[in-house]
Model the fold of this input.
Amino acid sequence: MDRLVYLDYAASTPVSEEALHVFEQLSKNFYGNASSLHDAGGKANDILTYSRRSLAAMIEGEPDGIYFTSGGTESNLLAIQSIIHGLPAHKQHVITTSVEHPSVHHAVSSLERLGVKVTIIEPNQNGIITEDILKKAILPETGLVSIQHANSETGIIQPLAELAPLLKERNILFHTDAVQTFGKVRVSIKELGVDAVSISSHKVYAPKGAGAVYMGSHVPWKPLYTGAVQENGLRPGTVNVPCIGAFAAASEQAMLRLDEQQKLDEQLRDYFLQQLKIRQLPVRTLQDNDNRRTLPHIIGCFFEGFEGQYVMLACNRHGICLSTGSACASGYHHPSPAVKALRVSDRDALQFIRLSFGWQSSKDDIDQLLHTFEHLQKEKKGA
Done:
Protein backbone atom coordinates (compact mmCIF):
# COMPACT_ATOMS: atom_id res chain seq x y z
CA MET A 1 0.00 0.00 0.00
CA ASP A 2 1.15 3.56 -0.74
CA ARG A 3 1.60 6.07 2.08
CA LEU A 4 -1.52 7.04 4.00
CA VAL A 5 -3.42 9.90 2.35
CA TYR A 6 -5.24 11.72 5.14
CA LEU A 7 -8.11 13.92 3.93
CA ASP A 8 -10.15 14.06 7.13
CA TYR A 9 -8.65 17.04 8.98
CA ALA A 10 -12.13 18.32 9.87
CA ALA A 11 -12.55 15.19 12.05
CA SER A 12 -9.16 15.45 13.78
CA THR A 13 -5.60 16.61 13.15
CA PRO A 14 -2.18 15.11 13.89
CA VAL A 15 -0.37 16.69 16.84
CA SER A 16 2.25 19.19 15.68
CA GLU A 17 5.89 18.79 16.76
CA GLU A 18 5.69 22.09 18.67
CA ALA A 19 2.51 21.08 20.56
CA LEU A 20 3.99 17.66 21.34
CA HIS A 21 7.17 19.28 22.69
CA VAL A 22 5.15 21.64 24.92
CA PHE A 23 2.97 18.76 26.14
CA GLU A 24 6.05 16.68 27.01
CA GLN A 25 7.87 19.52 28.80
CA LEU A 26 4.81 20.51 30.83
CA SER A 27 4.14 16.87 31.76
CA LYS A 28 7.74 16.52 33.00
CA ASN A 29 8.27 19.90 34.65
CA PHE A 30 4.84 21.35 35.52
CA TYR A 31 3.14 18.32 37.02
CA GLY A 32 1.72 20.07 40.10
CA ASN A 33 -2.04 20.36 40.57
CA ALA A 34 -3.00 23.88 39.47
CA SER A 35 -5.34 24.13 42.49
CA SER A 36 -2.53 23.39 44.99
CA LEU A 37 -1.10 26.29 47.00
CA HIS A 38 2.56 25.17 46.90
CA ASP A 39 5.09 26.30 44.28
CA ALA A 40 4.53 23.31 41.96
CA GLY A 41 0.81 24.14 41.91
CA GLY A 42 1.60 27.81 41.34
CA LYS A 43 3.82 26.98 38.36
CA ALA A 44 1.05 24.87 36.82
CA ASN A 45 -1.45 27.66 37.44
CA ASP A 46 0.91 30.12 35.69
CA ILE A 47 0.63 27.95 32.54
CA LEU A 48 -3.18 28.15 32.75
CA THR A 49 -3.02 31.94 33.18
CA TYR A 50 -0.74 32.28 30.15
CA SER A 51 -2.93 29.94 28.05
CA ARG A 52 -6.09 31.84 29.06
CA ARG A 53 -4.55 35.16 28.02
CA SER A 54 -3.22 33.75 24.76
CA LEU A 55 -6.51 32.16 23.63
CA ALA A 56 -8.56 35.18 24.75
CA ALA A 57 -6.35 37.50 22.68
CA MET A 58 -6.87 35.30 19.58
CA ILE A 59 -10.65 35.72 19.73
CA GLU A 60 -10.50 39.33 21.00
CA GLY A 61 -12.00 38.47 24.39
CA GLU A 62 -11.04 38.90 28.04
CA PRO A 63 -8.85 36.24 29.76
CA ASP A 64 -11.40 35.83 32.58
CA GLY A 65 -13.95 34.73 30.00
CA ILE A 66 -11.97 31.60 28.97
CA TYR A 67 -13.01 28.40 30.74
CA PHE A 68 -11.07 25.24 29.91
CA THR A 69 -12.95 22.01 29.17
CA SER A 70 -12.20 18.52 27.84
CA GLY A 71 -13.10 19.45 24.23
CA GLY A 72 -15.65 20.97 21.88
CA THR A 73 -18.51 18.66 22.89
CA GLU A 74 -18.21 19.54 26.58
CA SER A 75 -17.79 23.23 25.68
CA ASN A 76 -21.12 23.18 23.82
CA LEU A 77 -22.92 21.24 26.57
CA LEU A 78 -21.61 23.45 29.37
CA ALA A 79 -22.09 26.77 27.55
CA ILE A 80 -25.71 26.16 26.54
CA GLN A 81 -26.87 24.50 29.76
CA SER A 82 -24.98 26.81 32.16
CA ILE A 83 -26.25 29.95 30.42
CA ILE A 84 -29.88 28.77 30.46
CA HIS A 85 -29.52 27.87 34.17
CA GLY A 86 -28.27 31.42 34.78
CA LEU A 87 -31.10 33.17 32.94
CA PRO A 88 -34.31 34.26 34.74
CA ALA A 89 -37.55 32.23 34.57
CA HIS A 90 -39.05 34.51 31.90
CA LYS A 91 -36.08 33.89 29.56
CA GLN A 92 -36.22 30.09 29.29
CA HIS A 93 -36.44 29.70 25.50
CA VAL A 94 -33.54 28.47 23.34
CA ILE A 95 -33.29 28.67 19.56
CA THR A 96 -30.84 26.51 17.64
CA THR A 97 -30.65 24.98 14.16
CA SER A 98 -31.23 21.56 12.63
CA VAL A 99 -27.65 21.45 11.31
CA GLU A 100 -25.71 21.80 14.58
CA HIS A 101 -23.16 19.36 15.97
CA PRO A 102 -24.84 16.47 17.87
CA SER A 103 -23.56 17.91 21.18
CA VAL A 104 -25.73 21.03 20.73
CA HIS A 105 -28.79 18.87 20.07
CA HIS A 106 -27.99 16.78 23.17
CA ALA A 107 -27.70 19.98 25.24
CA VAL A 108 -31.06 21.42 24.15
CA SER A 109 -32.81 18.03 24.41
CA SER A 110 -31.80 17.69 28.05
CA LEU A 111 -32.99 21.27 28.71
CA GLU A 112 -36.30 20.50 27.02
CA ARG A 113 -36.79 17.57 29.40
CA LEU A 114 -36.38 20.06 32.26
CA GLY A 115 -39.16 22.24 30.87
CA VAL A 116 -37.13 24.73 28.81
CA LYS A 117 -38.83 25.70 25.53
CA VAL A 118 -36.69 24.79 22.49
CA THR A 119 -37.13 25.86 18.86
CA ILE A 120 -35.12 24.18 16.09
CA ILE A 121 -34.93 26.33 12.94
CA GLU A 122 -34.14 25.13 9.42
CA PRO A 123 -31.72 26.96 7.10
CA ASN A 124 -32.79 28.05 3.62
CA GLN A 125 -32.08 25.88 0.55
CA ASN A 126 -28.50 27.21 0.49
CA GLY A 127 -27.89 26.03 4.04
CA ILE A 128 -27.97 29.57 5.47
CA ILE A 129 -29.83 30.89 8.52
CA THR A 130 -31.13 34.27 7.39
CA GLU A 131 -32.32 37.17 9.53
CA ASP A 132 -35.92 36.45 8.50
CA ILE A 133 -35.70 32.77 9.49
CA LEU A 134 -34.27 33.68 12.91
CA LYS A 135 -36.69 36.58 13.48
CA LYS A 136 -39.74 34.34 13.00
CA ALA A 137 -38.56 32.02 15.79
CA ILE A 138 -37.92 34.73 18.41
CA LEU A 139 -40.40 34.90 21.30
CA PRO A 140 -40.65 37.38 24.21
CA GLU A 141 -39.12 34.64 26.45
CA THR A 142 -36.15 33.84 24.15
CA GLY A 143 -32.98 33.93 26.24
CA LEU A 144 -30.35 32.18 24.13
CA VAL A 145 -29.61 31.45 20.47
CA SER A 146 -26.93 28.93 19.47
CA ILE A 147 -25.83 28.86 15.82
CA GLN A 148 -22.63 27.24 14.55
CA HIS A 149 -20.00 29.41 12.88
CA ALA A 150 -19.55 26.81 10.13
CA ASN A 151 -20.82 23.30 9.53
CA SER A 152 -18.33 20.45 9.96
CA GLU A 153 -19.82 18.36 7.12
CA THR A 154 -20.66 20.93 4.45
CA GLY A 155 -18.24 23.72 5.44
CA ILE A 156 -21.07 26.28 5.05
CA ILE A 157 -20.33 29.49 7.00
CA GLN A 158 -23.23 31.17 8.80
CA PRO A 159 -23.53 35.00 8.62
CA LEU A 160 -23.35 35.47 12.40
CA ALA A 161 -22.38 39.16 12.22
CA GLU A 162 -25.59 39.85 10.27
CA LEU A 163 -27.74 38.01 12.83
CA ALA A 164 -26.11 39.45 15.98
CA PRO A 165 -27.76 42.95 15.93
CA LEU A 166 -31.22 41.34 15.83
CA LEU A 167 -30.42 39.53 19.08
CA LYS A 168 -28.51 42.35 20.74
CA GLU A 169 -31.43 44.78 20.45
CA ARG A 170 -33.66 42.21 22.18
CA ASN A 171 -31.10 41.32 24.91
CA ILE A 172 -30.86 37.73 23.70
CA LEU A 173 -27.54 35.96 24.31
CA PHE A 174 -25.72 34.49 21.30
CA HIS A 175 -23.54 31.33 21.44
CA THR A 176 -21.60 29.86 18.53
CA ASP A 177 -19.85 26.54 18.06
CA ALA A 178 -16.60 27.67 16.40
CA VAL A 179 -14.83 24.31 16.67
CA GLN A 180 -14.50 24.01 12.87
CA THR A 181 -13.45 27.61 12.26
CA PHE A 182 -11.05 28.46 15.10
CA GLY A 183 -7.50 28.27 13.74
CA LYS A 184 -8.79 28.02 10.14
CA VAL A 185 -10.38 31.45 9.63
CA ARG A 186 -10.50 34.57 11.79
CA VAL A 187 -12.80 34.14 14.81
CA SER A 188 -13.42 37.41 16.67
CA ILE A 189 -16.22 37.74 19.22
CA LYS A 190 -16.29 41.48 18.49
CA GLU A 191 -16.66 41.05 14.73
CA LEU A 192 -19.14 38.18 15.00
CA GLY A 193 -21.16 39.87 17.76
CA VAL A 194 -21.42 36.71 19.89
CA ASP A 195 -21.44 36.36 23.69
CA ALA A 196 -20.14 32.79 23.99
CA VAL A 197 -17.87 30.60 21.82
CA SER A 198 -16.82 26.92 21.89
CA ILE A 199 -13.40 25.79 20.59
CA SER A 200 -11.40 22.53 20.66
CA SER A 201 -7.74 21.46 20.79
CA HIS A 202 -7.62 18.49 18.44
CA LYS A 203 -8.84 20.50 15.44
CA VAL A 204 -5.75 22.74 15.63
CA TYR A 205 -2.93 20.14 15.82
CA ALA A 206 -2.95 19.85 19.62
CA PRO A 207 -3.52 16.68 21.67
CA LYS A 208 -7.08 15.48 22.23
CA GLY A 209 -8.54 16.24 25.64
CA ALA A 210 -8.74 20.02 25.85
CA GLY A 211 -11.15 22.66 24.69
CA ALA A 212 -12.47 25.99 25.88
CA VAL A 213 -15.69 27.90 26.14
CA TYR A 214 -15.60 31.68 26.15
CA MET A 215 -18.36 33.51 28.01
CA GLY A 216 -18.21 37.30 28.32
CA SER A 217 -18.35 38.82 31.82
CA HIS A 218 -21.91 40.07 31.10
CA VAL A 219 -23.15 36.49 30.52
CA PRO A 220 -25.07 35.14 33.53
CA TRP A 221 -24.37 31.44 34.05
CA LYS A 222 -24.87 28.94 36.83
CA PRO A 223 -22.82 25.76 37.24
CA LEU A 224 -24.39 22.42 36.39
CA TYR A 225 -22.29 20.63 39.01
CA THR A 226 -22.66 21.55 42.67
CA GLY A 227 -19.39 21.67 44.51
CA ALA A 228 -17.21 22.07 41.40
CA VAL A 229 -14.25 24.35 42.11
CA GLN A 230 -12.17 24.09 38.94
CA GLU A 231 -12.59 26.70 36.20
CA ASN A 232 -14.47 29.05 38.52
CA GLY A 233 -16.98 26.29 39.26
CA LEU A 234 -17.92 25.56 35.63
CA ARG A 235 -16.72 21.95 35.73
CA PRO A 236 -15.19 19.48 38.19
CA GLY A 237 -11.94 17.56 37.83
CA THR A 238 -8.22 18.26 37.92
CA VAL A 239 -7.35 20.65 35.11
CA ASN A 240 -5.30 19.10 32.28
CA VAL A 241 -2.41 21.59 32.30
CA PRO A 242 -0.09 19.88 29.75
CA CYS A 243 -2.89 19.50 27.21
CA ILE A 244 -4.10 23.09 27.71
CA GLY A 245 -0.56 24.47 27.34
CA ALA A 246 -0.13 22.44 24.13
CA PHE A 247 -3.55 23.72 22.94
CA ALA A 248 -2.40 27.34 23.40
CA ALA A 249 0.94 26.66 21.65
CA ALA A 250 -0.73 24.92 18.69
CA SER A 251 -3.32 27.72 18.42
CA GLU A 252 -0.58 30.37 18.35
CA GLN A 253 1.10 28.44 15.56
CA ALA A 254 -2.18 28.12 13.65
CA MET A 255 -2.72 31.90 13.90
CA LEU A 256 0.76 32.59 12.52
CA ARG A 257 0.12 30.46 9.45
CA LEU A 258 -3.59 31.28 9.04
CA ASP A 259 -3.23 33.23 5.77
CA GLU A 260 -0.70 30.79 4.32
CA GLN A 261 -2.94 27.80 5.15
CA GLN A 262 -6.02 29.49 3.70
CA LYS A 263 -4.14 30.06 0.43
CA LEU A 264 -3.05 26.40 0.35
CA ASP A 265 -6.62 25.22 1.07
CA GLU A 266 -7.99 27.42 -1.72
CA GLN A 267 -5.36 26.14 -4.17
CA LEU A 268 -6.13 22.51 -3.30
CA ARG A 269 -9.87 23.12 -3.55
CA ASP A 270 -9.52 24.80 -6.95
CA TYR A 271 -7.24 22.01 -8.19
CA PHE A 272 -9.75 19.37 -7.07
CA LEU A 273 -12.65 21.14 -8.81
CA GLN A 274 -10.59 21.65 -11.99
CA GLN A 275 -9.48 18.00 -12.05
CA LEU A 276 -13.05 16.76 -11.65
CA LYS A 277 -13.92 18.55 -14.90
CA ILE A 278 -10.78 17.44 -16.74
CA ARG A 279 -11.31 13.80 -15.75
CA GLN A 280 -15.08 14.11 -16.38
CA LEU A 281 -15.97 12.45 -13.10
CA PRO A 282 -19.68 12.51 -12.08
CA VAL A 283 -18.96 14.32 -8.81
CA ARG A 284 -21.04 17.33 -7.77
CA THR A 285 -19.70 19.64 -5.05
CA LEU A 286 -21.31 22.14 -2.67
CA GLN A 287 -18.77 24.68 -3.95
CA ASP A 288 -20.82 24.93 -7.17
CA ASN A 289 -23.24 27.36 -5.46
CA ASP A 290 -22.35 31.08 -5.34
CA ASN A 291 -25.11 31.89 -2.82
CA ARG A 292 -23.13 30.70 0.18
CA ARG A 293 -19.66 30.96 1.68
CA THR A 294 -17.84 27.75 2.58
CA LEU A 295 -14.65 27.02 4.48
CA PRO A 296 -11.84 26.50 1.95
CA HIS A 297 -10.53 23.36 3.70
CA ILE A 298 -13.83 21.41 3.61
CA ILE A 299 -15.30 20.05 0.37
CA GLY A 300 -18.66 18.32 0.50
CA CYS A 301 -19.53 16.35 -2.61
CA PHE A 302 -21.83 13.74 -4.14
CA PHE A 303 -20.37 10.92 -6.25
CA GLU A 304 -23.21 10.01 -8.62
CA GLY A 305 -24.16 6.34 -8.47
CA PHE A 306 -22.19 5.51 -5.30
CA GLU A 307 -23.25 5.57 -1.67
CA GLY A 308 -20.91 7.68 0.42
CA GLN A 309 -20.21 4.80 2.77
CA TYR A 310 -19.13 2.59 -0.15
CA VAL A 311 -16.78 5.31 -1.48
CA MET A 312 -15.32 5.88 1.98
CA LEU A 313 -14.60 2.16 2.47
CA ALA A 314 -13.17 1.79 -1.07
CA CYS A 315 -10.89 4.79 -0.46
CA ASN A 316 -9.84 3.29 2.86
CA ARG A 317 -8.74 0.10 1.07
CA HIS A 318 -6.53 2.33 -1.13
CA GLY A 319 -4.99 4.04 1.91
CA ILE A 320 -7.11 7.21 1.69
CA CYS A 321 -8.99 8.60 4.69
CA LEU A 322 -12.08 10.71 4.08
CA SER A 323 -15.51 10.72 5.68
CA THR A 324 -19.23 10.63 5.01
CA GLY A 325 -19.96 13.39 7.53
CA SER A 326 -19.46 14.16 11.21
CA ALA A 327 -17.24 11.67 13.06
CA CYS A 328 -19.41 12.36 16.13
CA ALA A 329 -22.40 10.81 14.32
CA SER A 330 -20.54 7.87 12.76
CA GLY A 331 -22.36 4.56 12.81
CA TYR A 332 -25.55 6.50 12.13
CA HIS A 333 -26.39 5.39 8.59
CA HIS A 334 -29.14 7.84 7.72
CA PRO A 335 -29.03 10.97 5.56
CA SER A 336 -27.19 13.71 7.47
CA PRO A 337 -29.45 16.57 8.69
CA ALA A 338 -26.82 19.07 7.47
CA VAL A 339 -26.94 17.60 3.96
CA LYS A 340 -30.71 17.09 3.97
CA ALA A 341 -31.10 20.78 4.88
CA LEU A 342 -29.81 21.59 1.36
CA ARG A 343 -33.09 20.14 0.00
CA VAL A 344 -31.48 17.10 -1.60
CA SER A 345 -33.21 13.72 -1.86
CA ASP A 346 -32.43 10.89 0.60
CA ARG A 347 -30.70 9.09 -2.29
CA ASP A 348 -28.41 12.06 -2.99
CA ALA A 349 -27.80 12.67 0.71
CA LEU A 350 -26.56 9.08 1.13
CA GLN A 351 -24.07 9.71 -1.72
CA PHE A 352 -22.44 12.51 0.29
CA ILE A 353 -18.72 12.40 1.10
CA ARG A 354 -16.48 14.99 2.74
CA LEU A 355 -12.81 15.65 2.21
CA SER A 356 -10.96 18.17 4.34
CA PHE A 357 -7.43 19.54 4.00
CA GLY A 358 -4.68 20.39 6.47
CA TRP A 359 -1.03 21.39 6.77
CA GLN A 360 0.31 18.26 5.10
CA SER A 361 -2.22 18.04 2.26
CA SER A 362 -0.91 18.19 -1.30
CA LYS A 363 -1.94 17.92 -4.95
CA ASP A 364 -0.49 14.39 -4.88
CA ASP A 365 -3.12 13.49 -2.27
CA ILE A 366 -5.86 14.77 -4.55
CA ASP A 367 -4.41 12.94 -7.56
CA GLN A 368 -4.42 9.70 -5.57
CA LEU A 369 -8.03 10.29 -4.50
CA LEU A 370 -9.18 11.04 -8.04
CA HIS A 371 -7.32 7.99 -9.34
CA THR A 372 -9.37 5.91 -6.86
CA PHE A 373 -12.58 7.63 -8.03
CA GLU A 374 -11.68 6.73 -11.65
CA HIS A 375 -10.98 3.15 -10.59
CA LEU A 376 -14.43 2.93 -8.95
CA GLN A 377 -16.06 4.40 -12.05
CA LYS A 378 -14.34 1.86 -14.34
CA GLU A 379 -15.29 -1.00 -12.03
CA LYS A 380 -18.91 0.09 -12.17
CA LYS A 381 -18.94 0.37 -15.97
CA GLY A 382 -17.31 -3.04 -16.29
CA ALA A 383 -19.81 -4.65 -13.93
